[in-house]
Design a protein that fits this description.
- Helix content is 69%, strand content 0%.
- The chain is globular.
- It has two domains: 43 residues, Single alpha-helices involved in coiled-coils or other helix-helix interfaces, CATH 1.20.5; 119 residues, AhpD-like.
- The chain has 187 residues and is mostly helical.
- The chain contains ten helices and no strands.
Length: 187
Protein backbone atom coordinates (compact mmCIF):
# COMPACT_ATOMS: atom_id res chain seq x y z
CA UNK A 1 0.00 0.00 0.00
CA UNK A 2 1.18 3.50 -0.81
CA UNK A 3 2.04 5.72 2.12
CA UNK A 4 -0.59 8.42 2.54
CA UNK A 5 1.14 10.62 5.10
CA UNK A 6 3.68 10.57 7.87
CA UNK A 7 0.80 10.31 10.35
CA UNK A 8 -0.75 6.96 11.09
CA UNK A 9 -4.43 7.88 11.31
CA UNK A 10 -6.60 4.85 10.60
CA UNK A 11 -9.66 5.45 8.42
CA UNK A 12 -13.11 4.96 9.86
CA UNK A 13 -13.95 1.28 9.45
CA UNK A 14 -16.35 0.61 7.95
CA UNK A 15 -16.76 3.78 5.94
CA UNK A 16 -20.27 5.23 5.78
CA UNK A 17 -22.13 4.22 2.61
CA UNK A 18 -22.08 7.77 1.19
CA UNK A 19 -18.30 7.97 1.67
CA UNK A 20 -17.79 4.55 0.08
CA UNK A 21 -19.86 5.69 -2.95
CA UNK A 22 -17.78 8.90 -3.20
CA UNK A 23 -14.57 6.85 -3.13
CA UNK A 24 -16.02 4.50 -5.77
CA UNK A 25 -16.72 7.49 -8.04
CA UNK A 26 -13.10 8.62 -7.57
CA UNK A 27 -11.86 5.15 -8.50
CA UNK A 28 -14.10 5.13 -11.58
CA UNK A 29 -13.22 8.64 -12.80
CA UNK A 30 -9.59 8.94 -11.66
CA UNK A 31 -8.47 5.33 -11.41
CA UNK A 32 -7.55 5.93 -7.75
CA UNK A 33 -8.69 7.44 -4.50
CA UNK A 34 -6.63 10.61 -3.99
CA UNK A 35 -4.49 10.41 -0.88
CA UNK A 36 -5.89 13.74 0.30
CA UNK A 37 -9.26 12.01 0.72
CA UNK A 38 -7.75 8.97 2.39
CA UNK A 39 -5.84 11.25 4.76
CA UNK A 40 -9.11 12.89 5.83
CA UNK A 41 -11.00 9.60 6.15
CA UNK A 42 -10.11 9.13 9.82
CA UNK A 43 -12.78 11.76 10.57
CA UNK A 44 -15.81 11.67 8.26
CA UNK A 45 -16.98 15.13 9.39
CA UNK A 46 -13.64 16.67 8.33
CA UNK A 47 -13.66 14.65 5.08
CA UNK A 48 -17.19 15.84 4.26
CA UNK A 49 -16.29 19.47 4.99
CA UNK A 50 -13.17 19.21 2.82
CA UNK A 51 -14.96 17.56 -0.10
CA UNK A 52 -17.91 19.96 0.08
CA UNK A 53 -15.60 22.96 -0.12
CA UNK A 54 -13.47 21.38 -2.86
CA UNK A 55 -16.51 20.41 -4.94
CA UNK A 56 -18.02 23.88 -4.62
CA UNK A 57 -14.83 25.80 -5.40
CA UNK A 58 -13.38 23.55 -8.09
CA UNK A 59 -16.46 22.04 -9.75
CA UNK A 60 -19.29 24.47 -8.97
CA UNK A 61 -20.59 27.32 -11.10
CA UNK A 62 -18.02 30.07 -11.64
CA UNK A 63 -16.82 32.56 -14.21
CA UNK A 64 -13.47 30.77 -13.88
CA UNK A 65 -12.89 27.71 -16.00
CA UNK A 66 -11.85 24.42 -14.41
CA UNK A 67 -8.40 24.94 -15.96
CA UNK A 68 -8.09 28.43 -14.47
CA UNK A 69 -9.01 27.09 -11.03
CA UNK A 70 -6.43 24.30 -11.36
CA UNK A 71 -3.84 26.86 -12.48
CA UNK A 72 -4.47 28.81 -9.28
CA UNK A 73 -4.11 25.60 -7.26
CA UNK A 74 -0.73 24.91 -8.86
CA UNK A 75 0.65 28.43 -8.42
CA UNK A 76 -0.46 28.63 -4.78
CA UNK A 77 0.97 25.16 -4.15
CA UNK A 78 4.22 26.01 -5.89
CA UNK A 79 4.54 29.21 -3.86
CA UNK A 80 3.95 27.18 -0.69
CA UNK A 81 6.16 24.29 -1.89
CA UNK A 82 3.37 21.78 -1.23
CA UNK A 83 4.63 18.53 -2.73
CA UNK A 84 1.23 16.81 -2.78
CA UNK A 85 -0.66 19.62 -4.49
CA UNK A 86 2.08 20.51 -6.97
CA UNK A 87 2.03 16.92 -8.22
CA UNK A 88 -1.75 16.38 -8.13
CA UNK A 89 -2.82 19.73 -9.58
CA UNK A 90 0.10 19.87 -12.01
CA UNK A 91 -1.33 16.63 -13.45
CA UNK A 92 -4.77 18.25 -13.66
CA UNK A 93 -3.37 21.25 -15.54
CA UNK A 94 -1.57 18.93 -17.96
CA UNK A 95 -4.78 17.01 -18.57
CA UNK A 96 -7.16 19.97 -18.87
CA UNK A 97 -4.84 22.06 -21.04
CA UNK A 98 -3.54 19.20 -23.19
CA UNK A 99 -0.14 20.81 -22.67
CA UNK A 100 2.31 18.91 -20.43
CA UNK A 101 4.77 21.81 -20.55
CA UNK A 102 2.18 24.19 -19.07
CA UNK A 103 1.70 22.03 -15.99
CA UNK A 104 5.45 21.79 -15.48
CA UNK A 105 6.04 25.53 -15.99
CA UNK A 106 3.36 26.44 -13.46
CA UNK A 107 4.95 24.15 -10.88
CA UNK A 108 8.48 25.44 -11.48
CA UNK A 109 7.98 29.14 -12.29
CA UNK A 110 4.61 30.30 -13.54
CA UNK A 111 6.13 33.44 -15.04
CA UNK A 112 7.83 31.41 -17.81
CA UNK A 113 4.55 29.76 -18.84
CA UNK A 114 2.86 30.88 -22.07
CA UNK A 115 -0.04 32.78 -20.50
CA UNK A 116 -2.45 35.39 -21.76
CA UNK A 117 -3.07 38.69 -19.95
CA UNK A 118 -6.10 37.31 -18.09
CA UNK A 119 -4.20 34.30 -16.74
CA UNK A 120 -1.18 36.43 -15.83
CA UNK A 121 -3.32 38.87 -13.82
CA UNK A 122 -5.14 36.01 -12.09
CA UNK A 123 -1.96 34.17 -11.10
CA UNK A 124 -0.16 37.33 -9.98
CA UNK A 125 -3.11 38.05 -7.68
CA UNK A 126 -3.15 34.47 -6.35
CA UNK A 127 0.58 34.62 -5.67
CA UNK A 128 0.30 37.96 -3.87
CA UNK A 129 -2.66 36.69 -1.82
CA UNK A 130 -0.53 33.69 -0.85
CA UNK A 131 2.59 35.63 0.06
CA UNK A 132 1.23 38.93 1.40
CA UNK A 133 -2.57 38.96 1.49
CA UNK A 134 -2.64 41.91 3.89
CA UNK A 135 -0.97 44.03 1.20
CA UNK A 136 -3.70 43.54 -1.40
CA UNK A 137 -5.28 46.87 -2.23
CA UNK A 138 -7.92 48.13 -4.62
CA UNK A 139 -5.40 48.52 -7.46
CA UNK A 140 -4.77 44.74 -7.27
CA UNK A 141 -8.49 44.04 -7.64
CA UNK A 142 -8.76 46.65 -10.39
CA UNK A 143 -5.99 44.89 -12.32
CA UNK A 144 -8.21 41.80 -12.34
CA UNK A 145 -11.21 43.82 -13.52
CA UNK A 146 -9.05 45.33 -16.26
CA UNK A 147 -8.16 41.78 -17.35
CA UNK A 148 -11.86 40.95 -17.71
CA UNK A 149 -12.78 39.49 -14.32
CA UNK A 150 -16.01 40.40 -12.54
CA UNK A 151 -16.23 41.02 -8.81
CA UNK A 152 -17.74 37.53 -8.46
CA UNK A 153 -14.71 36.11 -10.32
CA UNK A 154 -12.40 37.99 -7.95
CA UNK A 155 -14.22 36.41 -5.01
CA UNK A 156 -13.74 32.99 -6.64
CA UNK A 157 -10.03 33.63 -7.28
CA UNK A 158 -9.60 34.65 -3.63
CA UNK A 159 -11.61 31.64 -2.41
CA UNK A 160 -9.68 29.09 -4.49
CA UNK A 161 -6.44 30.73 -3.37
CA UNK A 162 -7.48 30.61 0.28
CA UNK A 163 -8.59 26.98 0.06
CA UNK A 164 -5.26 25.86 -1.36
CA UNK A 165 -3.30 27.88 1.16
CA UNK A 166 -5.18 26.00 3.89
CA UNK A 167 -4.93 22.57 2.29
CA UNK A 168 -1.23 23.09 1.41
CA UNK A 169 -0.42 23.76 5.01
CA UNK A 170 -2.26 20.65 6.22
CA UNK A 171 -0.71 18.46 3.51
CA UNK A 172 2.80 19.69 4.21
CA UNK A 173 2.39 19.52 7.99
CA UNK A 174 1.26 15.90 7.97
CA UNK A 175 3.70 14.79 5.26
CA UNK A 176 0.97 13.91 2.74
CA UNK A 177 2.37 11.92 -0.18
CA UNK A 178 1.03 12.33 -3.72
CA UNK A 179 -0.48 9.26 -5.33
CA UNK A 180 2.21 7.74 -7.60
CA UNK A 181 -0.31 7.66 -10.49
CA UNK A 182 -0.28 11.46 -10.71
CA UNK A 183 3.35 11.53 -11.89
CA UNK A 184 2.60 9.80 -15.19
CA UNK A 185 -0.75 11.39 -16.01
CA UNK A 186 -1.26 13.51 -19.15
CA UNK A 187 2.33 13.40 -20.34
Amino acid sequence: MTRISALDLPPVDPLPEATRRYFDICEEKLGMIPNVLLAHSFDITKLNAFTAMYNDLMLGPSGLSKLEREMIAVVVSSTNRCWYCQVAHGAAVRQLSGNPALGEALVMNWRVAPLDARQTAMLAFAEKATKTSSEIVETDRQALRDAGFTDRDIFDIASVTGFYNMSNRVASAIGMEPNPDYHAQAR
